[in-house]
Amino acid sequence: MSEIDALFQAAKNAREKAHAPYSDFAVGAAILTASGTIHAGCNVENASFPEGWCAETTALGHMVASEGKVRVEAVLVMADAALCTPCGGCRQRLAEFADDTTPVHVCDTKGVVQTFTLGELLPHKFVLK
Ligand code: THU
Question: Is there a contact between 79 and 51 (Cβ–Cβ < 8 Å)?
Answer without folding.
Answer: no
